[in-house]
Structure formats: structure tokens, C-alpha cells
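Support request, please re-run this one:
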Amino acid sequence: MQPMQLSGHLKGTMDEKVILQHLKSGSREALSLLWQAQSANVLNLAFRMLKDRDEAEDIMMDIFVQIPKKIQGFQGQSALATWLYRLTVNECLMKLRAQKRHRELEEEHIDVIVEDALGKIEGFDTSDFDPELLEMGLNALNAETRSMLWLKDAEDLDVKDLAEIYKKPEGTIKARLSRARAFVRNYLNERKENAKKGA
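Re-run finished. Output below.
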């Protein structure tokens, strides 16, 4: 049998159907290939939600340990990557609730957020943004909303995928993304104006 080749987020490929079939049959090779393709994405999302590398790695390991059992209930109606993101978000939110914390996503690449997220917001000038101020604005969002914004703008997931991950109507997802961008835009603009007045 030819080895299965995986790429990107596995969207709309025959490979995804093949690997799903093999996962359900208990194939370690399929699990290994899925790990190679998606473990970094799972870790990245968990880290942005938990802001702790060790905890993010624990979540990643827990997710992949659970896959052989949980995959049996997955019908393949969404992409495997979308399913993994949903598991990751749920695990992270449960950890945050259990610890009674509301920590926000970590942003390692502030320029990505400016270009891909805030750059899409009308009325916000990114030419003289303050990275620290921008991070403060993003940190003011709750963990779920910020993870939603990151998946949409940095990972380029569409609203349908987000609706599947967060189990919310597409209209709700669109509204939350719009409010999040508006909040960050207003947060930055207000503080820029205050800084000019204090100068």
C-alpha cells in the first residue's frame, strides 16, 4: 500500500477520507501521519488560548491520545482539521474554566495580526501602531473570542468552519468577529487620541 500523503489543512482531499478510514480501523500509521500534519496547529492554538507552553503541550498530547476513541463518533461531515480545532478549543476552555482563569491568546507575530486582522478593519490606521498597545487591546478579548479571531484571520478558516468548531450559528460567529474587531479598533483609536492630547 502506498503511504498516505497529507498536506495543509487536509481540506477537500481524498487523502482525508483515506486517513479517516484508517484512523477508525485503529491504524497507527494514520495516527502518525495526522500527528505530522496537525500536531503543530493544535499546539499553536492551545498555546494562544492558554499562554503556557507546558499546558499547551499537555493539551496537544491529550487530544491525540483521545483520537482513537473519539474518531469513532466523527462522521466526516467537516474537515479533520476543523474537528481537531473543535476538540482543542473545548479542551482549552474546560481547562480555563476549571482553573477559573480568563487568560488570553499569546501573539508571537504581531505583524500578522495587524496585516491579516486589523488591516481589514476600516477606520484603523496601522502605519503608526504601537505593538504593546495592540497586544493590550487583543488581551481585553476573552479567550474564546480571541481564538476565534485568530483562526479566522491568521489561519484563514472560513465562517462555516468556525461555526462547526464553536457549535454556534454562522450569524453569531460573524457578529462576534465584527464586535471583536470593532472593540480592538476603538480601543486603539481612543488611546491614540488620548496620547495625542497628553503630548
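Residues 1-14, 101-112, 115-122 have pLDDT under 50 and may be disordered. The chain is about 70% helix and 0% strand.
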